[in-house]
Design brief:
- The chain is of the alpha/beta class.
- It folds into 2 domains: 1-105 and 269-355, Isopropylmalate Dehydrogenase (3-Layer(aba) Sandwich), CATH 3.40.718.10; 128-255, Isopropylmalate Dehydrogenase.
- Helices cover 41% and strands 21% of the residues.
- It has 12 helices and 14 strands.
- The strands form 3 sheets. The chain has a 10-stranded mixed beta sheet, with helices on both faces. A two-stranded antiparallel ribbon has the order 6-7. Strands 13-14 form a two-stranded parallel sheet.
- Strand 6 and strand 7 (153-157) form a beta hairpin.
- It is globular.
- It starts with a strand and ends with a helix.
- The protein binds 3-isopropylmalic acid and magnesium ion (MG).
- The site of 3-isopropylmalic acid (IPM) has 4 residues, from helix 4.
Length: 355
Amino acid sequence: MPLIALCAGDGIGPEVAAEAVKVLKAVDAKHRIGFEFMEAPVGGGAYDLFGTPLPAESLAKAKKADAVFLGAVGGPKWEKLDYSVRPERGLLGLRSELDLYANIRPAKMFTPLIDASTLKREVVEGIDMVVIRELTGDIYFGKPRGVEKYEGGKRGVNTMVYTTPEIDRIARVAFEIARKRRKKVCSVDKANVLECTELWREVVTEVHKEYQDVELSHMYVDNAAMQMIRNPRQFDVVLTGNIFGDILSDEASMLTGSIGMLPSASLNGKKGMYEPIHGSAPDIAGKGIANPIASILSMAMMLDYTFDQKQAAREIEDAVARVLDKGFRTADIYSPGTAKVGTTEMGNLIIKEMQ
Ligand code: IPM
Ligand code: MG
């Protein structure tokens, strides 16, 4: 039985997760895949109940499952907590414990939403890129780290670390994905200043020798941030490390209109965790107005990458496109002349469109 661990999380997490599960169940009713779900609390809610954002039982479930779905974690309620038990540690713990090193964040323009972008139509029209972000290394996990007493004050330290095998394996993921797309990889680093990313460039260049059918370019991260706004269509696959990928993927998402639209997969082989790239949005939690599309599209990625159900995945994506075409919008992507709907209604419309 294909087994899915459900980590709904905090804020709007449970609301968008409910819609995503509903859609997946509708897919299952048609394709008879036989999904089984088990709830695995993580994040702030888990801390309140169990004193840790990643309870051992939740981690065990995530390890056992074929795929994990995560809504979102965090919120102001937990911001004052010690770093080691913050909701975000739950998410980071899952990523590192499951060794989900390959984070895939597509940013594709949905044509009906073109006017929701803050950039001009002629700049954003036809954007179709994917950020491949290394997810288990870099300054996120490097040691030494922490804040210590120092000369009468304090000193904060984080360390950027990458090893050859870590860079090698993520580079391969990017080249493989590029082969199925427009065959262009832009590797982003800061090799002019940071030795660690000089190594990154060296290893990516080495791996590229095995992928001569793919075009490789290198860009410094500051230039990449600028190029993404200036001419985003030049990008096909963007390959980068954990911290640069965190920043650039938010930037890429905004090009397409709303961060509420974009899904992600964090993979190690077939095993994967799937999450919307947006956060827990505490300001709108509980209001029933959050956009569930990023979560629903994350389920499509799950069908695609973990379960090899390509047709079912396309059916979800097509249904989302048609609902948008018909003019239905959640508040974050609303524009005058379209029909504003809530979270649940958006889920229902997508299911109806699939049938
Ligand atoms: C993301 C988020 C996380 C990250 C946070 C919530 C820890 O911003 O998935 O991009 O920094 O990786
Ligand atoms: Mg981020």
